[in-house]
Here is the input.
Amino acid sequence: MRYETVIGLEVHCELATDSKIFCSCSAHSYGAEPNTHVCPACCGMPGMLPIVNKRVVDYGMKAGLMLNCHINRVTTFDKKSYYYPDLPSAYQTTQWFAPVAVNGLVEIETSEGKKGIRIKQIHMEEDAGKLVHDIREDTTHVDFNRTSVPLIEIVSQPDLSSAEEVEAYLERLKALLRYARVAECEMAHGTMRCDVNLSVRPEGSDKLGVRTEMKNMNSIEAIKRAIEYETARHIDAIENGTEVLVQETRRWDDIKGKSYAMRSKETAGDYRYFPDPNVMPVVIDDEWFDSIQASLPEFPEVKREKYTTELGLSDYDAEQIAKSIALCECFEDAYSVCGNAKDAANWMISEVMSNLNARQMTYDMLTLDGKALGELISLVSGNKVGRANAKKILNAMFDDAAVVPSKYAEENGFIISNDTGLMDKVIKTMVEADPKAVADYKGGKEKAIMAIYGKCMKELRGNCDPQMLRTKLIEYINSL
Amino acid sequence: MDKDTLRRLELLNQLSLTEEQKSEMYSFFDRRENDLSELSSIDTENTERMVHVLPILTVVREDKIVQNFDRESLQAGAPETDEGYWCVPRVVE
Here is the structure.
């Protein structure tokens, strides 16, 4: 018998806000001392009142609109009963009755073609703290720095049917949320986490099989491995009776390549959701909604299309730049100043990306002023600054956002002077110092001249028009 | 309210009730069930959901970091702390 896998995903993304969802503590405590980014509210002290961070709602809406969801104009928060020491109030404040976004659709593309994945809902909620079990044998140590860091949970319908589709779906979510700048979505950093709900049924059947939920996958590759393992386990249980499948939550062990039962799966009733009386309903009026809609970026595929058809970039160049909204914005600003899309793309792909890589920065971390880059590109194309010196200027621009290319070039003697008197003098000196190269050139080895050209350029500190130097050098040697 | 349901509620709420308390619970839930039955009989088909008892909406704050509390004062009343952590009985084997 042939089987099909039915998969639904619950994806948690940490929102890129400065402060937490219900209090003003910093949401960024990676590497910080334990319990240094906490207050009575996120420590669950009695009597503390949560106040919603407006930007969390902004980002929840943005995420919803990027995933083609309907935005609930009245969105409310609820308590989810949860007894575990990583949430000190014994409940999680989340959204159950009126989540910020519902009924979305995400289009993915795999080797099988295009497919729409329905989004059931996106809700905003607080993260839990961290438990440390290996400091002392008898005790669990609790760090509340991460408690109340804002999350969105994106719940898909069970529309996915393979590891390949899951990978495409997660990559699509990452691209869209990063474009909207609402979340970093980096699984390695824990800013994107994914639980997989999976069942197996005979191909063509409309009845769902026993569903298990898998947790603890830390990369897309681990998720793919977990799906393949779990699918095989379910089919083996159905066909060979190796075990009785039960609805449960399982923990994935990527080193052993196996999943293990954690606990019987809770149902919504077990969580005893009820409206949180401490958090007032949030009403999204037209003005607020419109401002969020107006702030949405173009989708990556729209950028790619525009770059190739309107600006004449190659598919490869357009693909590279459209990888990140930060690259797109920098490129577009640079192009608006220098007026040459191909030049701007070349600088982005070669120099800007190299600088980011050398500084171990992701593309999304780019804050370079695109208009200043455009000015730099114009200086090079107008033969006012040599390329080698322009790279030095770009490096300075990465180090200091206040660097103005033309001013920096002047202050550091990078402006091409085209002082022909000085050029003639340097050419004469360098030619006389290398008679062998001159003889080789005259003997037909055209490349021999490059050694002298390089020495001249170095002596002139790159401050000359390369073409003029080359022409004058050839003329001088020919005149000998 | 039957025995299994009450046992499940005990587990979910991390409680261990005495027989006397259980007996009180049966009677309590029976009374609440009658109340709920009465409420369920009301037609709310065309009634908008009441989202909050107070007429206060959209209480939000700007996304600004303010760190007003230090760890020592927050942990002053804790039964046990260690290296800046709160300590609780071990929750994994």
About this structure: Residues 3 and 68 of chain B are 49 Å apart (CA to CA). The beta strands of chain B are 60-61, 81-82, 85-89. Chain B is about 40% helix and 10% strand. The interface with chain A takes residues 12-14, 49, 51-54, 56-69, 71, 74-75, 80, 82-92 of chain B (CB under 8 Å).
